[in-house]
Design goal:
It is built from four helices and eight strands; from the N terminus they run βαβββααβαβββ. The chain is an alpha/beta fold and about 180 residues long.
Length: about 180
């Protein structure tokens, strides 16, 4: 795995990077050598936020935690990533390298239950060409966290969403080769 670090308003020490690499080492059996890991550390007043994103083939796993200490935030992120991997164990074993995910984790029995995804509601919405600003306004008017629309500039289906920090995000489709 290739690890990239980004520091915002903070200096990263070598012992922090070694800790992250040690924690991520247990995931090496699951992901291919082409997997990329982005670690972003941000200092906000007295808190430190660590965001870890793992990309391998078409799979993306992401965890973000804010703690007083960046080492604690890394530990929490690794726990979240581990839970995501356990939750998607069956799908991962088909898509990723052969090998058992159970070898990596000693998960409590109540966490390992095989979750079936059930669609409880299907909704059809008209998608009309509008601008990103109009889509954000429409999302706020209907009181949702996201809104799907056809972007008038690109003529493609996009999604705007409200981020945890109160800002807005835009999802645009791309095709990986």
């Amino acid at each position: 795995m290739k690890i990239t670090y980004t520091a915002r308003k903070v200096n990263l020490r070598d012992n922090f990077k070694e800790r992250v690499e040690k924690k991520l080492k247990k995931f090496e059996k699951i992901f291919s050598e082409d997997a990329t890991v982005n670690v972003v550390v941000t200092m906000n007043k007295n808190n430190q936020t660590v965001e870890i994103t793992i990309k391998d083939n078409s799979m993306i796993y992401r965890a973000e935690k804010t703690q007083l200490e960046m080492n604690d935030a890394v530990d929490k992120c690794i726990d979240v990533l581990g839970r995501q991997l356990r939750k998607n164990k069956a799908k991962l074993e088909k898509k990723l390298k052969s090998g058992s995910i159970d070898d990596l984790f000693e998960a409590p029995a109540e966490e390992v239950d095989e979750e079936q995804f059930e669609v409880v509601r299907t909704k059809q919405i008209p998608i009309k060409p509008i601008t990103v600003d109009e889509a954000i306004l429409q999302m706020n008017l209907v009181g949702h966290k996201f809104y799907m629309f056809t972007n008038v500039d690109t003529n493609e289906v996009n999604v705007v969403y409200c981020r945890d920090d109160g800002a807005y995000g835009l999802l645009e489709p791309t095709f990986d080769n």
